Amino acid sequence: MSTLDDNSFIEKGKITITEGVSEMFLSMAKWMKFMAIVGFVLIGIMFVAGIGMMLFGSSFSFNGGEGSAAVGIVTGLIYLVITVIYFYPVLYLYKAATGIKKGFSESDQEAFEDGIYHHRRHYKLIGLYTLVLLSLYVIAILIIISFSR
Q1: 130: which residues sit within 8 A by CB, 6+ positions away?
Q2: Which of 44, 61, 76, 100 is most open to solvent, judged by the fewest CB atoms within 10 Å of its CB?
Q3: Can you spell out the DSSP letters for 78-116?
Q4: Would you say 92 and 122 are in contact if contact means Cβ atoms under 8 Å apart?
Q5: Distances (CA, A) of 30 to 24, 93, 118, 119
Q6: pTM for the full model?
Q7: CA–CA distances in Å: residue 138 to residues 85, 126, 142
């Protein structure tokens, strides 16, 4: 396998990574890293909000009833679960960005392949989440239709 320090390399005789493509990969990696950092910040905010809801959720209730503490705890737990769900795609995006950047800037084939691997894992996980969400939509629609009769 060729290294990345050549002006271009050919894999399986079909694809050439030229200097222009290399620059596009580096630009893409910068944006990927930016989006990952924004994702980590938002995950942190969501985590703090979830903990806050669990601790102080009952103090914001309008009726002050017995169930208000449970509502805060359940809402906080939902936020924490969503935080965990969002964490892995953002982590994979960050690892992809750093691997691709290191691969091209240091001519490190292994780092580049690792970056592409994590990029694939990112989109695979996003695709899985999309399928689960679409399935939940279909189930919800079927439940609504069955109760509306």
Answers
A1: none
A2: 44
A3: HHHHHHHHHHHHHHHHHHHHHHHHHHHHTT-HHHHHHHH
A4: yes
A5: 10, 11, 15, 13
A6: 0.80
A7: 21, 18, 6
Output the CA torsion sign for 99, 102, 103, 104.
positive
Question: Judging by beta carbons within 10 Å of its beta carbon (0-12, 13-18, 19+), is residue 112 exposed, middle or buried?
Answer: buried
What are the residues whose beta carbons fall under 8 Å from the beta carbon of 75, sequence distance 6 or more?
50, 53, 54, 57
Q: How many CB atoms lie within 10 A of CB 12?
A: 5
Query: CB within 8 A of 76, min separation 6: which ones?
Result: 50, 51, 52, 53, 54, 55, 57
What's the gap between Cα 115 and its chain centre? 15
- Strands 15-16, 10-11: parallel, antiparallel or unpaired by DSSP? antiparallel
Rounded mean pLDDT, 104-115: 92
Q: Quick one: which H or E segment has residue 16? A: strand 15-16
pLDDT tops 80 at residue 2 = no
